[in-house]
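ERR on first pass: missing label on line 2. Operator R.T. fixed the label and resubmitted. Corrected input:
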Amino acid sequence: MLLTLEETIDLIKKGRMLHIAADDSLLAQLPAGQWIGGTTPYLITEEGAIHTKEKLSVTAIDYAEEVRTAVYGKYNVFQIVEECYEDGLTMLIMPFGAEVTTKYAKEAPEVEELLMHPTVGWVSGFDLEEGGEAKVYDGTTGKSYTDRAVAMYIKLPEGKNAVINIVNIFEDDKTDPIITFPDNTLDVRTCSVNGQEVVFADYIRRKGINTQMPLVADYNGVYINTSIKAVEDGKVSLYAPVFKGQGYRFATEVSDYVAKFDEKIKMAGAVTPVFSCNCILNYMYGGLQGKKTPPYVGPITFGEIAYQLINQTLVYCEIE
Amino acid sequence: MDANIENKLKLMLQGHLKYTSDNLAFNMLIKKLQRKIEENPESIDICIEEIDIFADKYSKIVATDFARIAAL
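pass 2 clean. output:
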């Protein structure tokens, strides 16, 4: 729900368990309570995607039996798999550009047990016009961090499970060559295209690839995206890592993001998300400002977490 | 685990049988285990155990998948 600062403060004071996304100027004014938050002035609302420094996107975690929060740095972020509730949901927010976020992005897919513990969340950001620092907030202390991840461990009632899923508008062309990479990395120099080593930046230039389209990897029939941040000085920087041994293709062009989201959301069927978020790159490249993607509302993010860090994807969670 | 399902899961992990779940975590798990088996084909029984643990924990969710896999 989209609330004013006063309405949000009221919910916190009533002891509600909350997830909050908003501009830092608003989060900084909130009192301590049972909440976690992350910075972004870009929000998806029932009325469409907006940029706001006056309203907050607030998700009540009324389905929880209880919650705990914890803050982690790069050396201990994977303690989340040990410290979470056995039958629960972990909601994780990490600041864009922080070392803890890079660590999580690179190593999460290999962490034993991670897939046994539903983990959903997002990467916080800032106003792209004005710049600033991405922050996360641990509402229980009221402290904010630019270099830590904040987790909310949510205990679910017996017999309930958290189910995380994605809506991905991107697909590949199976006739395109498969690209593989020599390492798990966010900065690529060389890759292998159909088994032949090439400079990745040269390959992108030579093929005239639109770098607004992500690399897509096939995870047993589900596409997981990795977005291109920049191509410069012979190096390709990514928003999420590519992984050694995984095959990738560039996504085919999407000309109408709104129509494609409508199509994919219909394909996903009726869902009742307790949390959802969508990527800032979809918002920017797809011109989503003012556009609706019902029933999904929440933060527009600088990275999405569906167990591992992914890009250019709508992520959501249901309780079943 | 039912022997038929175990055999089908082994074929999936070896890439001989294709099945996509509606459950993201299950698909990610299959992908992760396929990579593990590519690196070490002898790890297949350990991988089946991992699926078994996942299925025990999320029996309600995986029940549909196992029924579909059994019918492949």
